[in-house]
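agent: user wants the full assembly modeled, not chains individually. Plan: 1) parse entity lines 2) check alphabet per entity 3) run joint structure prediction 4) return tokens. Steps 1-2 passed, two entities, 967 residues total. Proceeding.
--- entities ---
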Amino acid sequence: MENILKQKNKYYKFLIYLIVVVLVNMAGATLFFRWDLTSNKIFSLSVPSRKVVATLSEPLTVKVFFTGKLSAPYNNIERYLADLLQEYSIYGGKYFNYQFFNVSGEENEKAKVNQDLAHNYGIYPVQIQNIEKDEVKFQKAYMGLVLIHGNIIETIPTITSTEGLEFLITSKIQKMNNKISALLNLKEKVKVKLFLSSSLQVVGPYMNLTGLSETAGKIEEMTRKLNEKNFDRLEFVNYDPSREPSQSKEAEKNGILALQWDEFRDRTGKSISKDKGYIGIIVEHGDKTENIKLLDVFRLPLFGTQYQLAKMDEIEESINEAVENVISVNEEIGYLAGHGTRELGMMDMPFSNQGREESLKNFYGMVSEEYTLKQVNLKETGVPEGLPSLIIAGAKEKFSDYELYQIDQYLMKGKNLAVFVDSFNEIVPRQGFNGMGGFQNPVYLPVNTGLEKLLEHYGAGIKKSYVLDENCFKQSIPEAFGGGEQTVYFAPIIKNEFINKKLSFLKNIKGLVMFKSSPVELDEEKIKKYGLKAEKLFSSSEKSWDISDDINLNPMFIQPPKGENKYKQMVMACILEGYFPSYFADKPIPEKEAEEGGDDKKDKKNDKNKAKGIDMSSIQAGEATIKKGKPGKIFVIGTSEILLDNILDKKGMGPNAHFIMNIIDYLNNKEAYAVMRSKAQRFNPLKEIKPDSKVLIKGANIAGLPVLIIIAGLMVFLRRRSRQRVIQQIFGK
Amino acid sequence: MKNAVNIFKKEFAAYFISPIAYIVISIFLVLTGWFFFSTFFLYRQAELRNFFELLPLTFAFIIPAVTMRLFSEELNIGSYELLSTMPVSSLDIISGKFMASVIFIIIMLLPTVSYSIFISFLGELDWGPVVGGYTGAVLLGAAFSSIGLFSSSLTRNQIIAFIIGMAVCFVLTLLDKILFFLPRDFLSVFEFLGADFHFHNISRGIIDSRDLLYFISLCFIMLYSTNLVIQGKK
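--- prediction returned ---
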């Protein structure tokens, strides 16, 4: 009996221990610590994230709408998100709150309420694949969150990956902080001007446009709603250019879409008179304006020109973005327009693939997340002083000395330049075939814009050649064309070991792809003389060479040079930092080119002065040229092709995209952001090794190690046997 | 404790005196080496993630083979009766045997450090996840050893002990991979029970107290259960 009791007690004791273990684990699920062993602390909150939440002056609430119990791999996102938000709350203290809302279940009343709440914030379920009861099913799941700071709301509607999530959340919080400060400091209201000619309502039905008459009301209501989120700083203005001619002029000045039609008769015989109409929205604050398209015009085969009113939710989003741009929520940086530079692709043209390969849409989208790209026209405005940096991408046309002077003086003011230099202008023949029945190859004409002499003066020249590399991108050829691989020598792959790891923002970039790139030549003497700091960012491989004459980039006709001495490593990008000496230090200020039609006026003015007998030559300008200014930075790379959509990925998660953004951040003194962005960068390629070495490594590890163990076992076995023999001999006697 | 150390020495020596250790370690190295290096140069990434991802499944087969004889053999040949007459507690016996199997697993893992050394020459290896991976591997090995020890205490037959141990380890390994087959209401519970789920976190280079707590809890429950079984056999 006593034994049975003892046995029972043992099991009770076990049960109690089991309950304690379960409770300890349950408590541990909420009270836990994490120790991140990764070198770049991938799984810990970065310094910028900590700073952003630590400087919150008003409560920030994060509402997470995530369907629970999702199948793998989505179930991990929720956990990662919970861990991440917990980390934010540690550093955000009382101002950072987060809440997970139960949105699971169709019949659950509470979940339904939460689902409606999610819809109000613009979070809708997405379809994901789920395996349930041996069947692949598609499930609708909520996977979004909303950040609420004051009256401002930022939404991340879909989170399907943990990659870059911290950067995304931190950028949103930063943006909200900036927006609140910008809105509260506004002296005048932001005007949302709707240009909608009443004349369009007459022709609207013939263009299949319905609801034009309600558009003004809808936009006004939308502005009212947006006003609630923007501290009542928006003002709606409705313009009808058909009634007020001055408004037509304003519409034209702002580039509002204008439609005009000749007199026509409809099917019923009703005559519609010749007229013109404007449709579009302008968001305006001070001298800054943003144009929002209200009407899409596109051509369809067979159907001809089609008109479509933009969707109201898209317009709301566009107005919100435009407001952010005009009040400069994001830091503004300059992008040089004209001079044959690459055009920023901002709009998606429906039903058209034209020019997609030349588009900078991905680049624009990526940069716009963090900065406002302000187009700079040297001829019209010069470089505005407020811009901390200026991007010059692929200039092809000559700069006048005065324009170069403006760039030089901009740099002297302690500003920064990112110069993507194209050494050649690729001219593709119009006719596909030449007289011989073959394709005509493009012609590569050297580009001389004048920027080269400026860069050379600062110590970074660009050689007029293309870098070719045996370590390059290999394109697979479809089976229909014979299969196999095509070596694209002019698309060098930059190896990890040739990327400068001394720079923190390059530390996590493990490889890059270049395209039609020219070598950068650093003038060590000048750099030393001027006391500049020069950093070579990356180089081509030891198996690279360059071509400058008779360029033919058809991969079929490129052969690597014979002889090891023909190969050389080349620097492909660099950053110069320091007190640059002006190119125009010992030169007179270049003459500004006279504007068209402006010469007469100037002459007349001069004549007037002459008439009055004023001698202008007696007035002398002081030291207008800054000979050596504040410390600045110049980034130089021998290609602008890497900014194109076919090189940069849309999500901006690839190594090339991270590299570009990191450079821009570095130039704008946001190095910590650059480090945070690429901390999730997992691309970590191996060095190039010979096939023999691969076999050796495989052999040593797969077979070598077990063989060593077996030898060790045999030695132990033999030793034991000899010991046994000795014992046998001793006791056998 | 002294008794536990003595038992540990005896058990540990027993592994390496017989060919078992060398055979098991060799099989383990061939398996992991083959699976890891057959795709390593295709992925071209300087990391050991694929090696660690494979480890729970390999351990689910190897560790029960290592631990199957610890009690079953003694129960079968009757040496356990002899051991129980000695002035040693069942706690000493269990902890001695447990330590022996854990140290054996550490020794089994040691040659694989060569993978990381080779890879560090081939690329920029981040040693953090490697250290995390090996820490996780030892914890996982300890947890599976405790399961193996428990299954060995249940039966005199080593094969049955192996099958039971392997089945339990296998289920714990695959639990988080088959979550979509399991009832939704208990999904988070099943996920938490999965050994691979916790090992995966550590092998990425994050030491999380929740994962440590899981492995320690699993070891404790299994060793305590072994103690109950052993005491029941007395």
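agent: reporting back. Residues 347-356, 597-623 of chain A have pLDDT under 50 and may be disordered. Chain A has 17 helices and 32 strands.
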